[in-house]
Amino acid sequence: MKKAVITTLVLFWIGIGAFIVNGFMNPGNSPSAPVGTTIHSPLSTLPPTTTVKLDLTELAKHSSSTDCWLLIDGYFYDVTSYLYAHPGGGTIVPSCGQEASQMFVSKGGRGAHSQNAWNELAAYRVGQLGSDAPTAAIDQVKKVAPPTYGGAYEDD
Ligand code: HEM
User: Fold this and answer.
1) Which domain range does residue 101 map to?
2) Domain containing 74 — which CATH number?
3) If you take atom 27 of ligand 1, which residue's CA is the nearest one?
4) Three-class SS string for the chain?
5) pLDDT tens for residues 35-93?
6) How many domains would you assign to the chain?
7) Using a 6 Å CB cutoff, which residues line ligand 1?
């Protein structure tokens, strides 16, 4: 009788042990699926990451005062939210959607921008020419708050 009880207890604990080990070997997938089975995790229901190819065709799509991208030294910048804060007023707008390195470096012929201007520019960087930028990252740049110093640009 005592032997039967001990045997039952031993078998019980072996069973519990096997159950736990199986759980560790197949996390999130118990009972174990046959090899080759597609496991549908909740993550696979998320939308796929979309990206935008940063080429000159894409640049040209952002050529207005309500959607203004610049290409400066090989990088794309979305400066739309900065236009109204720009101390140089509307001088950026004709360069929207274009390669604007020379315009930026020379302030359109008025001399060099300060180091501060370069620092501010960095906040609007979307990505490198030729790369694929995640749309989520592009959307983040749109939300960058411009500096609060008075801008001279008025849209009409
Ligand atoms: C590419 C087109 C651009 C042109 C033609 C341009 C032109 C100008 C002009 C004419 C001025 C004011 C007058 C002067 O200081 O002589 C100015 C000032 C300024 N701009 Fe621009 N700008 C451009 C883009 C930008 C961008 C993209 C930024 C920053 C995101 C920026 C930041 C500034 C700042 C901070 C000033 C104040 C002066 C300084 O710190 O250099 N500009 N700009």
Assistant:
1) 51-142
2) 3.10.120.10
3) 121
4) CHHHHHHHHHHHHHHHHHHHHHHHHCCCCCCCCCCCCCCCCHHHHCCCCCEEECCHHHHHCCEECCEEEEEECCEEEECHHHCCCCCCHHHHHHHCCEECHHHHHHCCCCCCCCHHHHHHHHCCEEEECCCEEEHHHHHHHHCCCCCCCCCCCCCC
5) 776 666 666 676 678 999 999 999 999 999 999 999 999 999 999 999 999 999 999 99
6) 2
7) 70, 79, 82, 86-88, 91-92, 95, 100, 103-104, 107-108, 110, 113-114, 116-117, 120-121, 124
